[in-house]
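Narrative progress, year one. The postdoctoral researcher (J.K.) led the effort to move from monomer predictions toward full complexes, under supervision of the PI. The following entry was the first complex the group processed end to end, covering 533 residues in total.
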Amino acid sequence: MVAWKNTNAIYQIYPRSFQDSDHDGVGDLRGITKRLGHIKGEPGSLGIDAIWISPIFLSPMADFGYDISDYEAIDPVFGTLHDFDELVAEANRRDINVMLDFVPNHTSDQHEWFKQAVSSKDSPYRDYYHFRDPAPDGGPPNNWLSVFGGSGWEFDQASGQYYLHSFLKEQPDLNWANPVVRQKMSDALRFWLNRGVRGFRFDAVRWMAIDEEYRDDKINPNYQPSDDPYAAHIHNRSRYGDNLDQYLRELTEVVDEYDNTLIVFEDYQDTALSADEQIRRMYNINAQVSVPMNLDFTQTELLPRNFAKSIARYQRGKDPSAHMVTCLGNHDKPRVASRYGEDNARLMAMLQLTTPGLPIIYYGEEIGMVDQEIPSDRVQDPFEKRVPGKGLGRDPERTPMRWDTSPNAGFSHAHETWLPMGDDIEQVNVAHQQADEMSFLSLYKRLIKLRSEYPALRLGRYDSLVVSKLLYAYDIHHGSDRLSVILNFSDVEQGILLSENTEILLEVKPGQTKIDRRFVFVEPGNGVVIRYR
Ligand code: TEU
């Protein structure tokens, strides 16, 4: 059976920004435990079945936890293993599954393996990473780039060789062709599974397998100088190597040794593969246990045809029983309410939470948080520091969660929080929105409740109905149940002809939709879920 079959949603927690319990201005595990009532099990809860926590492992924090120096230890900034066990126990008590972030592609340069590897060319750890001789001209071995700017290769003075780092030079890539590496990484998964973890989000998987001959990537003929410098190449050799499927399958088998466990792969559409081929490939790994994320909605223009096309592709490419995992945002992308505007973000919430599959809600989306401006002396993200001024920095979407109107919005008692708290806290906080029926939070709670009540919304079949420039309608079928969702992104009222005997289950703007016999009239900026009796 498909893992996490009936899970209504996953809530992504960026742990530095959720709740600070020890007054250092950075969120931590005890903070998360304290706030689990926001997720489930209390009167004002969202009612969400699972959380994914971005990395909490020992790390020098060059990339805020995505550079791990010990896969089996908690970083002191987040707390202790004991705090972690308490978090899992409290989550279990509330029937919340805990998913951790697993970073297989690279370690920190401070990991013991890498320290040993650079200590000598003969170290048994040398082959844990990709060390290569320079090109004949003394430069890097090939043209591969780092996502965070510049060459993907760093010169190691001591040995005269280069090592590969697809991200920061402080994040050397692991050599997955080495079976010992695969063994060690499987052990790390078991370590957390034995502590009650029920799933993983696998970070940056497409970089794990590379061309074994280390041939150059293709040059992207459509590249514009104003683009992200990484887009200058088509990454046809430095990603999606032939062995990727095998490496990932092995890991799914480890996770599948445990009951009802799920892996979601971070997997953006890649210019080197056709979208259909990529989706099929990632679903073919082990679709009962592991599924790719559909990250299209985090970076597409606001156009129903783009949404419909993306959903259709995933429906086509996946095994019918497998989840489609949809995301509106995450810790790497501008927030949905900033990209599309706040009214459209409400419609997007309805779209995401009425589409069958497994939605991931990024913390703060449920209160309509927007990107915050980061003064230059407060920039934290290494991406912004290395490639400044292109809007690539990720701090704006990582600012702390807002709970109430107390100092630092209830996030921390510290004098200064790690990123600024930002503006509009009076309106954009949980306590304020609890009391307001028209708030983002109330909408999210209503949508999640509906999703929990109607199996069609989790397990049904999606069929598109109307896809025009700014109107989007689709049907969900499940057994004899039929629902329609109508989303009006335009600024005029839209009438849609449906069959008779319908009732309105939920509206983005309550009480504004009129049904006149077979016609449904949806106001601008409104969205409606309709049920056929
Ligand atoms: O991101 C990998 C990824 O696909 C990047 O291209 C991402 O889009 C990038 O951050 C640009 O916004 C993952 C993590 O989500 C990210 O936070 C890490 O920095 C990265 O891996 C390295 O571990």
